[in-house]
Amino acid sequence: MPSSTFIRAVPTTTRLHASYPSTKALSLARFPSLPPVTRSLQRRYQTVGTAYIQPKPRSRLRRFLGFASITTFAVTAGFLLGAAERYRSLMTLPIPTDEETLVAFTPSDELAQSVEEHIRNHPLSVSLREDPAYTESRPYLKIPEQIRSRSLTAGTLSNSKGIVVPPVAFNNKETNTLVTIFYLGPNVSGHPGLVHGGFLATLLDEGMGRCAFPVLPNKIGVTANLNIDYRRPAMANSYFVMRAQVVKSEGRKAWIEAHIETLPEEGQEPVVLVEAKSLFVEPKQAAALGDKLHKFAN
To answer: Which positions are annotated as active-site residues?
Structure first.
């Protein structure tokens, strides 16, 4: 027979059907214990495959900022540790008493010797020295010699052409007044022959602080305000007197008034050259500094 007789005709409309479990049935079979909501979330976030995504490298700016932050932290920590070490070493230095400062200075030349004798024997010095209410001292010499050169007034400007001899101070703790006698040479001038106004302000600020500290709770403070009125020129190569007094104190604050005048010779009246008013405030951290810083300043 021809081969065509053995071919079985199959209708083209016939389809083969297979029975497969539904996706829902598979899900229930795989996670039978999960509640419907959890299974729904599980389906939502399942993926067949995940492509690897290369992370973006950090920008140069971010890397620089990170490096700068680490460097700043390291430098600051080192600075604070170094400052703490220096402060600890400073606190171990011996501080002379008021009496010791009176014999600690030796004039280095004829000018210093002459100035020293004139201040010591002047009638104002003699009268204050004989008054039991006043205590005599030389504050610049209370700063230990090892660190005195770092002080503007007690170190840098203390020489034969500046502050020729350490000023002599008389302090009255009952009235909170301070009288300081000193001599200024030619190298602290602004205009030739005239003491620089800024330097006079520095001396006033320093003297008023020394007057204010004893009335503050922890005996130390900083200048919060300073007002200066210049009345007359202050001539270089001359003797001067600074008078300061506490006019009001309240908690961590002290208000001071002061002026600088000429040191009068016999038969003369003093001439007021500069007047000042100031406010000193004790830092909140003053109690942690101890009392040696107060001794340096006084």
So the answer is: 205
